[in-house]
Amino acid sequence: DTPPYTIVPVADRKAYWIGGQRQAVIAGAAETGKRYALSHSTIAVGGGAAEHHPSREAEAFYVIAGAIRFRLEVRQAILTNGDFLHAEPGLKYSFEVLPPETCEVLIFYAPGGLERFIAEAGIAAPDGEARSMADAQQVFDAAPAYGVNYTASEK
User: Fold this and answer.
1) Strand 48-54 and strand 84-87: pairing?
2) How many CB atoms lie within 10 A of CB 99?
3) Is-contact 48 93, C-beta < 8 A?
4) What angle do CA 12, 39, 66 make, to 5 degrees?
5) CA distances from residue 34 to 15, 28, 37 in whole angstroms, order as listed
6) How far apart are CA 149 and CA 74, in angstroms?
7) What is the mean pLDDT of the chain?
């Protein structure tokens, strides 16, 4: 049973480095009756995600600060503070943060469950510690079990 409401204090959030970005999971399937998950991602200039296509989840991105370029199947889009992007399951896309500043994005996944991928593939990131892109291989290794397919790994 899903409780009628859920409160998740900041102190209870778990953060992970995954593919060059720090994702703090705000709420997951366990807190939302499996309906959705929400994370707060902080991405350095040049960081982002390689081309991939989630097969099960719709994803939405709301930019809090900075600028981020999405390469979608048929076009590119640059999102800045206050912009929103919705991506249906199966859409191939990648993204990269543009200069001059770090980007902060709220990422919504529906249904919930993809946060388990973040926890498995990511590296615990307490206190905002930095990681390198060299740590990204475990993302590619864990992705297929969660229905996430990276184009680079399909070649």
Assistant:
1) unpaired
2) 8
3) no
4) 120
5) 20, 7, 8
6) 18
7) 88
99/53 Cα distance (integer angstroms): 25
What DSSP element (H or E) covers 116? helix 114-121
Q: Is the distance from CB of 152 to CB of 56 less than 8 angstroms?
A: no
> What are 9-29's pLDDT values in tens digits?
999 899 998 877 899 999 999
- Among 56, 12, 49, 15, residue whose Cα is nearest residue 31: 12
Question: 79 pairs with which residues across the strands?
Answer: 68
Percentage with pLDDT > 90 across the chain: 66
What is the pTM for the complete model shown? 0.84
Q: Which two tokens stand for residue 144?
A: 């297929």
- For residue 105 the two structure tokens come to 């994005």
152, two tokens:
């680079």
Q: How far is CA 31 from CA 6, 36, 79, 149, 151, in A?
A: 6, 9, 29, 26, 31
